[in-house]
Known about the structure:
The complex is a heterodimer.
Chain A: H1 18-36, H2 42-70, H3 76-115, H4 123-127, H5 156-179, H6 183-215, H7 222-254, H8 264-289
Helix pairs in contact in A: 1-2, 3-7, 3-8, 5-6, 5-8, 6-7, 7-8
Chain B: H1 2-7, H2 17-22, H3 27-55, H4 66-101, H5 109-131, H6 152-155, H7 159-187, H8 200-231, H9 245-279, H10 286-300, H11 315-343, H12 352-375, H13 377-383, H14 387-417, H15 423-449, H16 464-493, H17 528-535
Helix pairs in contact in B: 3-4, 3-5, 3-16, 4-5, 4-7, 4-9, 4-14, 5-7, 7-8, 8-9, 8-10, 9-10, 9-12, 9-14, 10-11, 11-12, 12-14, 12-15, 14-15, 15-16
Amino acid sequence: xxxxxxxxxxxxxxxxxxxxxxxxxxxxxxxxxxxxxxxxxxxxxxxxxxxxxxxxxxxxxxxxxxxxxxxxxxxxxxxxxxxxxxxxxxxxxxxxxxxxxxxxxxxxxxxxxxxxxxxxxxxxxxxxxxxxxxxxxxxxxxxxxxxxxxxxxxxxxxxxxxxxxxxxxxxxxxxxxxxxxxxxxxxxxxxxxxxxxxxxxxxxxxxxxxxxxxxxxxxxxxxxxxxxxxxxxxxxxxxxxxxxxxxxxxxxxxxxxxxxxxxxxxxxxxxxxxxxxxxxxxxxxxxxxx
Amino acid sequence: xxxxxxxxxxxxxxxxxxxxxxxxxxxxxxxxxxxxxxxxxxxxxxxxxxxxxxxxxxxxxxxxxxxxxxxxxxxxxxxxxxxxxxxxxxxxxxxxxxxxxxxxxxxxxxxxxxxxxxxxxxxxxxxxxxxxxxxxxxxxxxxxxxxxxxxxxxxxxxxxxxxxxxxxxxxxxxxxxxxxxxxxxxxxxxxxxxxxxxxxxxxxxxxxxxxxxxxxxxxxxxxxxxxxxxxxxxxxxxxxxxxxxxxxxxxxxxxxxxxxxxxxxxxxxxxxxxxxxxxxxxxxxxxxxxxxxxxxxxxxxxxxxxxxxxxxxxxxxxxxxxxxxxxxxxxxxxxxxxxxxxxxxxxxxxxxxxxxxxxxxxxxxxxxxxxxxxxxxxxxxxxxxxxxxxxxxxxxxxxxxxxxxxxxxxxxxxxxxxxxxxxxxxxxxxxxxxxxxxxxxxxxxxxxxxxxxxxxxxxxxxxxxxxxxxxxxxxxxxxxxxxxxxxxxxxxxxxxxxxxxxxxxxxxxxxxxxxxxxxxxxxxxxxxxxxxxxxxxxx
Lengths: 290, 539
């Protein structure tokens, strides 16, 4: 925060409607989702209403925060609270992904050998799936989803790795520009990061289309399809969110909201982007490559 | 823009009407909301428990359809854990942490309100999951128990989806609240207060919040997989597709076991204030308390599979999980000995919070001992899924978590309301509550050892006597909470004025503020002299 205009007291915001709006939007979205996935027609409209309200909430809440920031309500201590909050939020996200990586590890190294008749738990194999040999990637002894072709690592995934790593570099380059107070340098760094992120998402979507139409690799392709799509899908969702956040930051940069000493929002999004980047490296190694 | 800044120079004006509560950014109001919500949920969860015990009063099926019975078992657990105990502990944290560390509020006040208001939404989803099957086309009841094991949970109707989304909401709420608490404790302590001078309640919540941030997202991941297996054709928990139903158990208990410490630790923190106050001695072994708590949390993260001994893990794995589990009793025992050493040669008095504290030490230790029995693999093969397990975890969670919260409520109620509670009635509540609890759950040990399975609506006639005793105890125990409600309402409405320092043996920053404290307290950080009172701990 601006060192020259430090406010004396910790900033406690006035009563705010946004948390309750958040509650209503989450409740609406999830009730709608529960109805929609059970074939109740009205459900999807409820979901859309909930999501629109959620978008309105994000916009309204962050507008308030931006206004407060621009009017110098926040001192150094508030800034530290925001930073720590973001760090622990990312920590919780890491553990969310860890659940899926853990599932992948457990299936490949513990559950599959059992299914193939290994150890004293091998009776499942004798009784139910005699003759099944567990070789990763697999769609299980029930051959769920039919025959499929495995997604190779060295085509689009390798290119995507390169793209995301490059975008990690460009956002750092943008940060340098911000620290040197060079507007153009910052804007171009951000714009290229967003561009790379969008290319990544497009390539990923193309890859999904290719997998569905040419490889017969679908969400229903047994455990391989399940882990593949859930891990890459949640990652793709996070990249999309990250790209939207970057666009918001780009908008704020164009308005000149940031200064070399006051740009927590930029850094928070940059951290998030690096987190998404690191998750991708894990994906590339454990889902595509090994 | 400048008007914005002008608006925010803090005056002491208190918002009024419904806006004060619904739009609140005040840690005291949000703490009160948390506590009231928890009280409502306590009665809701209690009502389901009463129905369960009424059904078990006699062998045979009298009142409840078996699926409805199991649905009540599921809801009782989820409502009590996520609706009553965790929000009550979060309410104590919201009220007391800023007062204890000399902070003007929680670090992120608006997010604080969000983490509270998600809870009523989650409770709505939870209640919907219970209600939906009664409507045409609503599908079957949730008969899985709170552990939601597949493949049974894959076969339940749409109420399971409501439950899964309720768990997502509860998870978001817990993670946001935990982030807030961690940031508050790291960033908002009064200048001069180091981490090792923090009041013990703050330490326990710091560790609890870490646990929540690390394990709740894993549960969210697990139930998300469940959702996808149910509706989108994935095979995470389906052996035919190469998955494994046991995978869900691992994900669930990776969350579920640390959750036990999440429920326990805040109450341990309350004890660490109540026992020194009424023994008129400083807490014995502050550093060892912190150390053992960190040990409990760390080891507690890596022993989850002791809930799943019977699934058929390798001998190496069960041995590891058995030894790890038993090792936890060392740091937990250390905490208990610290409390006893604090009382040793103290000049003790037994006001209601202290009575609860002593009851916790006795009964929680008892529950811990039956826990060591359950941790032993060959023994657990016999106890697994019997009423012995029910008796064990109620002995751990009622004294370990709920009595600690009761102790905290009685200890701080005068601080919150400015009135003393009725000590005579409170003591009556304590005795009825504790005796009722023991009548309810002690016989269940024998039932379990004799072979009565849990989560089953009917039982063999040979188990009748102990079940009758248990159900009678449950009625006493359940009704005693109406007395709690009466005492709390009476204290809020009036009573003897409480001093700033409610208990003469109490130490800490919160006792330097009026009772009740002003709407905004510690707007300027406490002075060094007040700080000294907090952490002066002659051994």
